Every structure is written in C-alpha cells, then in structure tokens.
Amino acid sequence: MRLNDQKAPDESWQETPITLKAVAPFAGSGRHFLKPMLVSDSSKKVLMINRLSCFVLLVLASCTPAQDGRGPGHYVEALKQGALDRGYILRIPKNYKQGTPTPLVMGLHGLSGNMDYFTASTKIEEVADKEGFICVIPNGTPDNLRGWNTGFFAMAGTKDDVAYLTSILDKVEKEFSVDKKREYVFGHSNGAMMSYYLGGLMSDRFAAVAGIAGTIGIPKASSPIKEVPEPKNPISVLLIHGQMDPMVAYKPGAKALLQCIGAEDCAKWWAKEDGCEGAPETQDLVKDLATVTTYRRGKNGTEVQLISTVKGTHDIPGGYGQGGRESASGVDAVAEIWKFFKAHPKS
Fold first, then answer.
1. Does residue 166 sit in the same domain as residue 314?
2. Closest CA to 340 of 179, 201, 206
3. In angstroms, rounded to a whole number, what is the distance separating the alpha carbons of residues 234 and 52?
4. Domain assignment present for 259
5. Same domain, 60 and 79
6. So what's the pLDDT on residue 154?
7. Distance (Å, whole) CA 333 – CA 266
8. CA distance 105 to 337
9. Residue 306 burial by CB count (10 A; 0-12/13-18/19+): exposed, middle or buried?
10. pLDDT category of residue 69 using cuts at 50, 70 and 90
11. pLDDT for 158-206, tens place per residue?
C-alpha cells in the first residue's frame, strides 16, 4: 500500500499487466483445437463447453502475478497498526534477483526523527544498492515525539513497536527473497535503544544488531523495565558512541541530558551475555580520533565491538546534515556497521 502524501518512487515501475497467452496445441493435433469427430449435437455442445472452460482457465493462469511484480527501486509502503497507517521506506537493491537469498537491514531513526530524514542523513539506500542488501526504514510511533517504545524509554508513546516491526519483516520476507541468516537492525539514539531492545527480544531472528549513541538501559527509569531483556540466543553487537555526546551519556556522570548505562558497560553486558572469552582487545580505528574494542570468541562465533570516538558528539559519525557531512569523529558509521554485519551472519 502506498501513502498518497509521499513522493513517488525514484525508479519507475508498473504493476504486472494482464496478458493473454496463446493456448498450447493439443497433443498430436498440430492445431489449437481438437480434430473433427463424428459426434451428436449434444456431444458437440459438451465439447465446446469443455474447450471454453479450459481456455478460460489457461487465460486466468496467465494473468496470475509472480510472487512480487516489483523490481529494484525505492518504494514507500504502509502497514496498518490499529487505526494508524504507519509508513516505511523499502529499498530493493539494483542487483536483486528473485530467488536469490538477499540480506536485509532495518534502520531506525532517533527521537523526533522520521524515515525520510534518516534515509537522507545516512545515505543507507546508496549503500544498499552498492552492497546488495534489502533496506527497510520505518517511521516510529507518531504519538508525541516520533520514536520507539523500548520499554525503559517510551517518550514516543507506548504502542507495541516490536509487533509493528516484526510485521514489516514478515511482509518483506513474504514478498521478496530474504536470507534469513542475514537479517540485521541498527539505529541512532532512541533508534539504537530500539535496536538493542530487539536484539534482546529477537535474538532468534536477527544475526546482529548495531547502535549509534544509544544505551541498553536507564537504571533510574520510572518504568518497570530498566534495561534490555537478556537474549535467549547469542547475537553479535556493534556499539558506536562519541565521548562528547551531550544527549546520551557515554559513561555514568558525563555531562549529558540522559543519564544511562554507559557505552563501555553496555559492551561488557553484551559480551557477558554472548559468553565471550578472554580479555577485550583495543586498538586504534582512526589514530587520535577513534578506537575499537573487540570481545571475541562468543558462543556460535559471536563478537561484540565498541567503537569509541574521542571527539564524537550525538551526531551520526560520517552522517549528512544541513551543515554538511559530520567529520569530527573521523568515522563512517554506516560503513562500519555494514562491514560488521557482513562479517557476522547467523550460524
């Protein structure tokens, strides 16, 4: 279903036209109809009716569309949740072929954001085309500030976003050839929190999750849920966080609007849940600007990584905004996320 108030797809496509195919010859006749037979008038009528019925059935069969008539391109979709039509952007990469298992990446915007802004700021559709994965960018809950209900953080409202996002995944899987061992989700800020929340709840489905400037919990939250639920299955996780983030604290006590579980403690929590062995390894990702700490040898080959940017703020590292591209962090978050996802399919 398309939203009438959205822009048309940037690549043209048409619904599968109804076509009539020639009826195949009957065996041994060389013609499209049976050879004449000496039969009664009543028998002739029966034969004519049978021929007509077969012809109609063949025509109807030729009009049945394929599993999905759409090819590569940008689509604006909607899915009903209660009385709401909630939108999402769907990108089918240019090299997509029906029948070939294709990775799927879901991207979640931050609080007060939307699917269009997130798509533009990350240029995730360009990456999807280049790397060959299906991309889904949904809109958050439209109540209050548009965002996501993560249980421990619900400023956007209390609608069941887990059910909504699961429905989108199910719909895309039904229509397209999705590689079920390579389904991933990432997000920014409140979207990162939602990604971690999904990682805890849906570790049986997602191979890996990633978050930019998020957290797994708020110890002083007024809600009964204080943090992400423990995953039932091991899952690889990438965390990216700026040490100068003024919105979501990099570590407890840092000068930031939201006091929460810090990035380093979040990484340790995931590593413990995955059963990672040995001490973490820390090395420069970008000299003087960013480090990467890796927890290895988790169950089923899982890993946990924390990319820490020294001068990074709450902006998406390497993201695009009104002031141009973010460069203080020295990191391209989307590139790092896809590199991590690509290296961590579900075993």
1. yes
2. 206
3. 59
4. yes
5. no
6. 85
7. 18
8. 10
9. buried
10. low
11. 889 999 999 999 999 999 999 999 999 999 999 999 999 999 999 999 9
